[in-house]
Amino acid sequence: RSSACWDIKMSRRYDTRTTIFSPEGRLYQVEYAMEAIGHAGTCLGILANDGIVLAAERRNTHKLLDEVFFSEKIYKLHDDMACSVAGITSDANVLTNELRLIAQRYILQYQEPIPCEQLVSSLCDIKQAYTQWGGKRPFGVSILYIGWDKHYGFQLYQSDPSGNYGGWKATCIGNNSAAAVSMLKQEYKMDEMTLQDALQLAIKVVSKTLDVSKLTPEKVEIATLTRDNNKTKVQVLPSKDVEELIKKHEAEVAAAEAEKKEKEKQEKGSS
Hints:
Blueprint: H1 2-14, H2 28-38, E1 43-48, E2 51-57, E3 74-78, E4 81-87, H3 89-110, H4 116-129, E5 141-149, E6 153-159, E7 165-167, E8 170-173, H5 177-187, H6 195-209, E9 220-228, E10 231-236, H7 239-270
Antiparallel strand pairs: 1-2, 1-8, 2-9, 3-4, 4-5, 5-6, 6-7, 9-10
């Protein structure tokens, strides 16, 4: 108990400013920003051979809300990139606006789209500055970026409030992200995933990790990034397409349950 009290005292001494290290070498404000993301709506990305899938949990499902927004959690950055956010939405709006500006400045300067990693890295430099200079707090947002460029094809990146980023085959941020990543590890087929497989896997993972009894199109938002006639196409799936995916998943689950029961019956009969 005394050691727990000591930890609390220590954190209280060093968590008032973002720029001060604790004696154990921790930046508490950055850790608290990460914690805020852990309670945010789930977002996951899956890389396939012929495209990328982004799925995001919708938290604002109030029936009186006016559906004026094209999408709540998924933002288009430029012709070849989109992103999904988990965390404080107002912080996310500032960062997505900055991402769009960085992308447009690059196009204006070089007459070609910005490489995916360069855009992610540029924003992470800004995020990192907010952990080093006094009087600022870190952005309480993690971002999943999906994109295509001529250098590396389809790409999926994740960035944190600390300014760290990494490239992924499949990953998840937000609420229950550890359970989702563990499931993706088991289910993801390296170099074999088609876009359709990725969509089904996204629905499977989201249905297991969301804190709802039944998954509905109102609770989840799905976008795909594909290439068609040398052009990148970012599409947020309409509700009826999401509903079809959910129905297909439910049918598969029901079939697996029936098969399991049949096996158990046979085993009982043989014994």
